[in-house]
Amino acid sequence: MILPKVYLQDPHAAVPSLNPANQRQFVVSTSRISPETERASREAFWYREELLKIVRGTWTEDGNGRHGELELRGIRFTPRMVEAIKLEDLAITTTIIADYPTADGENAARQIGRAKFNVPIDDFLTMKTSVRNRSSRPISPILRLQPHVAGLPHNIALDLDKRFSWTGVLQRKLPVIQPGEIVESELGIVALCGGTYEIGATVDEAEFIKTGGGDEDQKANVDTQTLLQGGNVLGEPKLRTWYMREPCTIVARK
């Protein structure tokens, strides 16, 4: 069974009390813990809740017909399990197209995997990087691309002289991405010799964007536990960084 990845708008929301009679009560930590630990704890709780909505387990006994359901609420989510199931606020995808089609009008850059392409050497290509904002807030991004030779130590892999070249800059400020929107960036590339190359992509948040929602919007962003405990248990908001999970792989051949 393949589980789908899950996106949550607010994975750090306060965990509600198990007592439905008091909807204003929230689970709070009795000891002082770091904001990172509190955020990880809340993420684990909410992603586990989403998983329990789509996963069910049953059991049966041969012969007597006894059956029942498995209790899955005892599952404990680790940080690695959360990383495996969650979708980030930003989705980064890449594609490669040839600047000039082949004689039969086809794209000389052939896709052979989700982010893997076969390309001819000495052909001018365009790498398109798409950044999609899944969140409900606008994001101000800085895109950073890092080409390197695949399968070599880091210091050697970055030596691309006479192997791989590009036109343009590897780091650029992109327009603010509104919720649900996609912004694209293009980079001209060419493989000068055969080999396998990878281009990683990173998006850094340049600044916090104010939505201008007035008092109501500001009130919605106040963490409930901050009001209850008189302190921000999640810490001060920080600028975020997103990484493309799978680098763009380019296999260059004659």
Task: Tell me the count of domains.
Answer: 2
**Which class best fits the helix and strand makeup?**
alpha+beta
The CATH topology of the largest domain is what?
Answer: Immunoglobulin-like
The percent of residues in helical segments reads: 10-25%
The fraction of residues in strands falls at 25-35%
The end-to-end span amounts to 40 Å
The CATH class of the largest domain turns out to be Mainly Beta
CATH superfamily of the largest domain, called what? Immunoglobulins
Q: Count the helices. How many?
A: 5
One letter per element, helices H and strands E, the order comes to: HEEHEEEEEHEEEEHHEE
Low-confidence stretches: 215-231
Major sheet details: 7 strands, mixed
Question: Could you tell me the radius of gyration in angstroms?
Answer: 24 Å
Tell the overall outline.
globular
**CATH-defined architecture of the largest domain:** Sandwich
Count the E strands: 13
Mean pLDDT rating: 84
Task: Describe the structure in your own words.
By secondary structure, this protein is an alpha+beta fold. It folds into 2 domains: 1-87, no CATH class; 90-253, Immunoglobulins (Immunoglobulin-like), CATH 2.60.40.10. The protein is built from 5 helices and 13 strands. The chain has helices spanning 35-54, 79-85, 154-157, 214-220, 224-229; strands at 58-60, 67-69, 90-98, 110-113, 116-120, 125-133, 140-149, 164-167, 171-173, 182-191, 195-207, 241-243, 248-253. The strands form 3 sheets. Strands 4, 5, 7, 9, 11, 12 and 13 form a 7-stranded mixed beta sheet that branches. β1 (58-60) and β2 (67-69) form a beta hairpin.
